Known about the structure:
The protein is mainly alpha-helical. Helices cover about 55% and strands about 5% of the residues. It has ten helices and four strands, in the order ββααααααββαααα. The strands form two sheets. A two-stranded antiparallel ribbon has the order 1-2. A two-stranded antiparallel sheet has the order 3-4.
Amino acid sequence: MTTLLSIPSPANGVWELGPLPLRAYALCIIAGVVAAIWIGERRWVARGGTAGQMSDLAIWAIPFGLVGARIYHVATDWQLYFGDGQDPITALYVWRGGLGIWGAIALGAVGAMIGARRMGLSIRPVLDTLAPGVLVAQAFGRWGNWFNQELFGRPTDLPWALEIDAENRPPGYLDAETFHPTFLYESLWALAAFGVLIWADRRFRLGHGRVLALYVMLYTLGRGWIELLRIDDVQLDDVLGLRLNAWTSIILFLAAAAYFVVSARRHPGREESVFRPGEGPAPTGNAGPDAEESTDESDESDEGAEVGTGETAGRPNGPTGSEGDGDGRPGR
C-alpha cells in the first residue's frame, strides 16, 4: 500500500546521555503530569481551595497511578511475564515499560482519595477538579506511542496515515506500510473532550462527582471506537468479537452515565465547600463593635469582584487544563 501523503514515525525514541537513557515516552508522560497539575491548581483555587494543595495531592496520586498502570498491563499481557520461557521477575521491571491507562486511572483515583482525606479535603470536589487535567495528560502521553511506533490501527491509505517500520509491524501486516494513527485520534479526542468538560462545568456548575463522571463518559466514548481500529495483540481473548478494552469502555460508560443521572437528581448544584466538615481555612472577621460594618464592606467588595471577574468559587479563572512504554513494550 502506497500513499502520496503520510505521517512519518520518528527514527528514534531514546537518546543516550552518557549512562542515562532519555526516553521520549517518559518525557511525554512528564509533560502531561505537569500540565494536569497546573490545570488542577487553577481549578482548585477557583473553587475556593488553597493554592498548592493539588501539587501536594499529586504526591499520592502519581505513584498510585503508576503502580495501577503496571498492574493492569501485567494482568492483560501476562504471557509476556508468566508464559513459557518467560521470567516472572521481569514483571517488576517497570523501567522496561508497559503501562495501562485503566489501571492508572483506577489506582490514581484511589491515591487521590487517600491524600484528600489526609489533607482534610472533600473527595468529590477533588476528583471533579482533577478530571479535566487528566484528559490533557492523556493527550500528551499518547504521543509517546508515536515515538515507540506502537498501538496503531489497521492499514489505511488516508492522507494522514502513519508510516510504521517493518520491524514494528505485527504478524499478518508485514506488507502494509501505513496504518491508522490511533495515537493521534485519541490525543485529539482527549483535547476535544477537555474543551467539552470545561464548558459543561462552567455552564452547568457540575458538582458531586459529575465532572469526573462526564470525563469517564467522554473518554470511553472515544476509546471505544478507537479500539475497533487497533490491531495490536491482546493476550486476553476477545469476548463476543470485541477487545477487552472495548468492553471496559462500554461498562465504564454505562456506570458513569448512571452515576451522573442519579447524582444530578439527588444532589443538584455544587458543593458549598471543597473541604471536609471542620476542615479548611478558619473564617476571618472582626469581633468588635465594628464587625457589622466590616461585614457590609466585605459583601460590597465581593459583589463588585463577582461582577468584574465572574463567579470565583464556581468557575476557573482562565483556560485549564497513556499508554505504551519507553522500551517498545505496549500497554493498553
